[in-house]
Amino acid sequence: MFFEKYGPLADAYVAENEQNVIAAIKRLVDVPSVEGAPEPGKPFGPGPAAALAEGLALAKELGLATHNAGNYIGWAELPGTGDKQVATITHLDVVPQGNGWTADPFDMQVKDGWLIGRGVADDKGPSVLCLYALKFLKDHAVPLRHSVRALLGANEETGMADVDYYLKNFAAPDFCFSPDAEFPVCHGEKGGFNGSLVSGELHGNILEFEGGVAHNVVPDRAACLVKADITALTGREGITLEAENGAVRIRGWGKGGHAAMPAGTVNAIGLIVDYLLDNRLCTPEEEAYLKVLQKLHHATDGSGMGIAASDQVFDPLTIIGGMIKFEGGCLWQDLDCRYPTAITGAEIERRLNEACAGAATVREARWSEPFYIEAGDPAIQALLDTYNQVTGEHGKPFTMGGGTYARHFPRAVSFGPERADLALPEFAGPMHGANEGANIAHLMQALKIYILALLRLQDLEL
């Protein structure tokens, strides 16, 4: 009876609001919201604060009560008759635009049934879906047993200090889902390890080395300025050379993507490292460090650095080098590692230092342990049942390497709206990549799923 009662209402609502949803997503995407230098009242810089203001303005226009918690995080909500709370949590900050875009990433475009722009998939599009799901509940005067809150974060991509602030100052929801992954339901996330491989102070041939836009993005381009004679060098696939004041600027051209899903990517930093070593352009001290980086970049499963690991719960470990810089006479290659239960953050740090063999040291190491909730949890089953009923599929809960807000809450999962089986057209790219795309039809289906899931959660004893 549940589906028969609300399914047709949700279908009609989604059809009526499709263009409104697209326009709302554009409003948010068109606000550049990469983390910036903190300002008074804007802990993550002006961009995320502006996006949060726009998101809350949209929520107010939809008739929802809103609150801005010091530009750390905000929310829209509907009250329930009881003392329990269901929440969704998405984020309005984005990774830097990166390179390779065919249009302005902060001017959302609609093309052949797709939205193109930074944040359409991660995570401004899903943010709008959550607000419109609450609007459905309000417009249809659904009697709510549990209050429903749509949380809008502002620091997911670079530290999740927003949710730390929230949980320090406000009570955690009794159940929460984050539309920041794939369907059907993700009930576990790998551990996350970050740090940097740092050389000793170098006084050799490398004059500059830079690449990458964020620690959790495989870099699609990088550049190194090195003392060399360009007439003795030739380019190769993925490498171009430019003479510059008696030196040579080596540019690497790879294929970017999300650090949690590095299959199919090509790390531009790794291309340059190989070129420098193959052409013997560096001093022995520099070569020793570069050989460490070569082991890192040649195997995203960690086998080159002696940290490969797998278990029965998660996919195998992954590791990438996202950004490199030459600072204070030292090279810094940062790391983004997603690891299963078969290894610990402390063991990863130990083995990485061992693999460096004195040519580099691990600095600023930090990690979070894997997160996992049993798939039989009634709330997880409610989400799964909703997804399968809407789609006609027989999906099963899964675990992943990506890290979402869910891991910060006592009872939470990530829930769509991406689909692993959805092929990207040539003109669209993945989350964190150039030409980030989101399929309109799938977004609209996700809106229906979220509406019905929030309704179904009302029947549970939380």
Describe the structure.
The protein has 462 residues and is of the alpha+beta class. The protein folds into two domains: 2-190 and 371-457, Aminopeptidase (3-Layer(aba) Sandwich); 191-368, Alpha-Beta Plaits (2-Layer Sandwich), CATH 3.30.70.360. It is built from nine helices and 25 strands. The strands form seven sheets. Strands 1-2-6-3-7-23 form a six-stranded mixed beta sheet, sandwiched between helices. Strands 10, 17, 18, 19 and 20 form a five-stranded antiparallel beta sheet that branches. A hairpin with a 2-residue loop joins strand 4 (109-111) and strand 5. The chain is elongated, with a radius of gyration of 23 Å.
CATH-scheme architecture of the largest domain: 3-Layer(aba) Sandwich
Provide the low-confidence segments as ranges. Answer: none
Q: Please state the overall shape, judged from the principal axes of the Cα atoms.
A: elongated
Total domains, how many? 2
* Helix amount: 25-40%
What's the β-strand tally?
A: 25
Query: Separation of termini?
Result: 22 Å
How many helices? The count is: 9
Radius of gyration: 23 Å
The CATH first-level class of the largest domain comes to Alpha Beta
What is the SS-derived class? alpha+beta
Corresponding CATH superfamily of the largest domain: Zn peptidases
